[in-house]
Write a structure and sequence with these properties.
Blueprint lengths: L2 H8 L3 E5 L3 H14 L2 E6 L3 H6 L7 E4 L6 H13 L4 E3 L10 H18 L19 H7 L6 E6 L3 H10 L8 E6 L6 H9 L5 E4 L10 E4 L4 E5 L5 E5 L10 H12 L3 E5 L8 H9 L4 E4 L8 H7 L4 E5 L1 H19 L1
Parallel strand pairs: 1-2, 1-3, 3-4, 5-6, 5-11, 6-8, 7-8, 11-12, 12-13
Antiparallel strand pairs: 9-10
Helix pairs in contact: 7-12, 9-10
Length: 339
């Protein structure tokens, strides 16, 4: 059976999508509509979403559930009590990766689940060729831009909240890649990436060997491995050769990025309680990369940015929102100066 005929069997199925990421909603909307499904609702999972369900003829609910969010648990209970519409609990994290083949396989599997749950038992899920499914011109344009500007976001205690506010203010077409070095336990790396990805138009993902770094990427540095960007812009993960009290070592991350990208790098030091980063910013500054810090009053603990400010190398200090606006201004000016 051809893919087109299979898609005709799905045509007209009415789907409601609930996911926090506007970028993921846009991707799902475009692929679903091109596959013949009707998207009746497409918005964050909320009381408002649940209230709209009875007023729309819906065959399948597609929910991206944040297991760490207590509000989502109460919303799920309310949803289960209020409707008997079949629910697919969806993991949209694969959409963060710049891998059309992997995304196509994922979309094909998802279509298979929708076919099964709506009684299309003879339907076989193909791997969808995303080359024929244009997913957002802005995303495609951004995907073609290999990373030339790379900034390190360094954070410790209080950092996740500060970084969330920072990332939420950045535009989807940011002409830079961001490397997040956050002190945390190794089991929290995927969860942190997932939570941050929900609140920003950028793509947040754990570091993976072989991923080509592109503008718009936000890479979460692993705790137990050393992240390097090789000469052609591909991520490599190496064994930690230098012991560090803090993991990941912010000093190492900033130093490595500064050596690799020179004046096309930069570092922003957010909330934290240690001096990790001081050696790194000295190395990056020597290579021509600017150093910025979160201002003390907006930090949970300001010791880490304070220590960096004490070096005299921080050229700008602000709140997370001000730092985001400054980064956009800085990158825009660099584009104008260097093309």
């Amino acid at each position: 059976m051809s893919v087109n005929l299979q898609q005709n069997e799905l045509r007209g199925i009415r789907v409601a999508v609930a996911t926090a990421s506007s970028r993921h909603r846009n991707q799902l909307q475009q692929v679903f509509e091109r596959t013949g499904l009707r998207v009746m609702l497409n918005e964050p999972f909320s009381d408002n979403f649940i209230a709209k369900i009875p007023h729309n003829k819906i065959d399948v609910l597609l929910i991206d559930l944040d297991e760490a969010d207590e509000k989502h648990h109460s919303l799920l209970e309310k949803l289960l009590e209020s409707t008997d519409i079949p629910i697919i609990f969806n993991d949209v994290s694969v959409l963060a990766f710049n891998e059309p083949g992997r995304q196509g396989k994922w979309f094909g599997t998802l279509m298979g689940k929708i076919a099964e749950i709506t009684g299309r038992l003879e339907w076989e899920a193909p791997d969808i060729d995303l080359g024929s499914y244009t997913v957002n011109d802005t995303l495609l344009a951004r995907d073609s831009a290999l990373a030339s500007q790379v900034w390190v976001l360094a954070a410790s205690l209080g950092g996740p909240d500060a970084v969330k506010h920072f990332l939420a203010e950045l535009p989807s077409d940011l002409p830079a890649s961001l490397i997040l070095a956050q002190h945390l336990g190794s089991s929290f790396e995927p969860l942190l990436a997932q939570q941050l990805d929900r609140i920003t138009p950028l793509r947040v993902m754990p570091a993976r060997v072989g991923h080509t770094l592109r503008h718009g990427d936000v890479i979460v540095v692993p705790v137990s491995q050393r992240l390097k960007i090789n000469p052609i812009g591909v991520i490599e993960l190496l064994a930690q050769s230098i012991p560090s009290f803090y993991t990941p070592s912010i000093d190492t991350v900033i130093t490595d990025i500064g050596l690799r990208f020179g004046a096309n790098s930069g570092a922003i030091i957010f909330s934290g309680m240690c001096d990790d980063g001081v050696l790194g910013v000295r190395a990056m500054h020597a290579m021509g990369g600017p150093i910025w810090t979160q201002e003390a009053d907006s930090c949970v603990i300001s010791n880490m940015p304070d220590q960096v400010r004490n070096t005299g190398l921080s050229s700008y200090t602000g709140t997370p929102a001000q730092l985001a606006a400054k980064l956009v201004e800085y990158l825009t000016q660099r584009q104008a100066d260097y093309g």
